[in-house]
Automatic annotation (TrEMBL):
NCBIfam families: MMSYN1_0168. Keywords: ATP-binding, Nucleotide-binding, Transport. The keyword Endoplasmic reticulum does not apply. This is Oligopeptide ABC transporter ATP-binding protein. One of its GO terms (biological process) is transmembrane transport. Residues 12-598 form the ABC transporter domain. It comes from Mesoplasma corruscae. Gene3D superfamilies: P-loop containing nucleotide triphosphate hydrolases.
Amino acid sequence: MIKHSKDKEVLLNVRDLLVEFRSKGRKFKAVKGVNFDIYKKEIFGLVGESGSGKTTIGRAIAGVQNIQDGSIYLDNQIVVGTPTSVYTINKEIVKKLNYVNIKYRVTTSYITRTIVYLKKEHNKFKSKPELLSKASWKKIFSTSAFSIVHQLVGDNLEFVTKIVKNFDRINQFITGIHEYIPDISKDLEMSILEKNEDTKNIVNKLKDKMSLDYFDLVEIRTKIKELSVNKTPENFQTLMYFIFEKLNLIIENNDKISRRIKIAKELEEQNLDLSAPLQKRKHLIEKYYRMIYITKKEFIKIYNNPEIDHTNLINSVGNTLLTQMLTKNLDESLDESIDDKYIKDKRIIKYYNSLIPKTVELTDRQISSIQQLIEYLSLPPIDDLVNKSYLFKVPTKQQKRENRKNIQMIFQDPGSSLNERMSVEEVVGEGIENFPELYNSPELKFEYVEWFNTNNPDSSINISSNAKNAQIRKYQVLKLIQSVGLLPEHLSRYPHEFSGGQKQRIGIARSLALKPKIIIADEPISALDVSIRAQVLNLFQQFKEEYGLTYLFITHDLSVVKFIADRIAVIYHGDIVEMADSEELFTNPHHPYTKSLLSAIPQPDPDYKFNEKIINYNPYKEHYDYIFDTPDFIEVSDNHFVLANKRELALIEANIAAKTKSERSKRTT
């Protein structure tokens, strides 16, 4: 969860942003559910190598890249995407749980067949040991068979990890939502969070059990390689017994896994129902009523049975009350409410259940939980309340048009981003022309008249008669190009007549024309000469102060982003792996990828041994345990976040403690 600074106001929120591309019938995730906030008047750096997804994020914020999931908020209003749908996420969780259940059945079946085959081979060579010397161990202990099982278990672990991430996403969205949407009661919020957390805990225990299978299969494959070097009868027996022991443990463990999957599915069914749309709720309420109550129709059928003695019930409830209860509202008309159809008296329910026992007897806690669920199902669905809220309302066509003005982009290649058939005046003024309010204000007209009269004292004009809109627009464009260091005569020229640095200045002027709240600068200096880069960077700082601008500065060059950014996020293959204040990130990098990027920065030292100092980042080696120990985006120090699992977090905390201790000892000495 991103922590907000108390003294800074958030301008832009990116939540669970997912962008996918298709290639040859397959989907590739370019951005994998990233979350971050950008404060007002801040330069936020986004750093990563080519293909990391940084430009895709910028394009998504600007609204020129379709997104598959997630949402982007500007000034607490959605500008891209839709609000989180709890029902949709729960449907996805149910789908994945069903998939895991099916795949684990396949895994168990495959292991059972493997055991049968190995027993057959074991008995054959036990009765005729002389055949063992000629036998192919590679065929008997086919590593491919264990590789398949290993892959199946690994796939399930990945699915369970995705399920846990979905639970975390719901928790993040629901926590504190009653403060923003008063129609959502705190009790409903707590109920969703509690049920969600209960199911998540079961799934985490499920993952722990699956991890045992994964480790057992690793041990089997290691043992086969180890003992296959020396193919003796003793090693054959040792290996067989070892494999049988491990496979039987896996089979036993899979029974426990199946039970946990069943529990998780039952709990998740309630989560799904609690978030269900309005049209499904009547049916769901009826379903849960049947689980804990009995219909009057069912009970009357039993009560009118002459073979059953009801003396105990009459003594317990009372004949008058019982008759009254059974004769009231028996007409099942359309007007009849669900409460009129059911008997809720605990004594009658207990008596009925004793005559017709249910398959599973519910505990008092389960009954109480279902009663609470029924109560919340009578309320409007949480997704409906969210969609009706001002904060989460999908923007109208007019609002989308306004957002085009508020979010502008400076592109990496200044040449290809400019229309060669349009003059500089047309390029910069095109946006202004589409938003008349930018040049129709009395203040701007007065400013233009004052400027014109100062420069043309012999032919003065006034606001009421002579100030034309076209002239005001041209004056506005002139101001913009002069602010970026170009000259008035450049207005009539075309893009091909300018150098790369000048083209980028035109791009900056164009982005400033609409008076945006945030500018996305996508590698704006990577195509420029070193001498020009500093000038452009100084322009960014200048306009930040003059106009109170906010920037998302995208680059692959850490040395540049250190100079200009207030905070930096490091992205790798669609995941933000580290985020901190600029100085903090360079002083105390924690993620291996960040360390690798920093080590690759050229140093102005002829004696610097670059090949020795550079750190090679190998994600498979660094994060070998991510399959069963899922990483989280964790705050390791003040406003310093790192994507790390429990093992990595322990190492980071140990390094921080050691560094703190070392600094203290230096100060004392």
